[in-house]
Amino acid sequence: MLVRQLELEPAQVCSPDIDETPRSGETPRIYAARMAHEKALAGAALHPGRNILAADTTVAVGKRILPPADDEALARHCLNLLSGRRHNVYSSVTLLDEEGRARHRLVKTAVKFKRLSTSELDAYIANGEWEGKAGGYAIQGLASSFVTHINGSYSAVVGLPLFETRALLEAVGVHVLAPSH
Length: 181
Fold this sequence. Notes:
There is one protein chain. 30% of the residues lie in helices and 23% in strands. The chain is α+β, with helices and mostly antiparallel strands. The protein has a single domain (2-171), classed as Maf protein. It has a 5-stranded antiparallel beta sheet, sandwiched between helices. The longest helix has 19 residues, at 28-46. The radius of gyration is 17 Å and the shape is elongated. The two termini are 23 Å apart.
């Protein structure tokens, strides 16, 4: 869990049950921001009066939002779209403070993949690392060997922009990387 890299231990981690279907004409940037906000609102409904941190990571080729891969065919389709191309990863984080005020940050990171051979694609699919991952890949795993270039935040591509998350938390008085007493 990335937030632990800030030396924080969340009181609770949950995956809110929200509709994650993109709206007609919704851009990847707007979609990622909306998803993070809706996840935060769902968390606040379950835990009122607490700081709620929520995030969403969206992989896009142009204006096309690539969904989390839930089967091999979709993973293969996404990876074929990414092969040899540059794509954008939008990572949005929303913090609802104890009074319900929302703070948001969104990070855009450009990632370029090498052209994937059939054998590379088959091996990655067989590994199963793609399961449930936006765009069908996890940059922190085997897919890192496909990346020829990244411009932006690595932690955002993994799933949580740590620099921006730290700034949001500190804005509400949650100090991270503080010395233990």
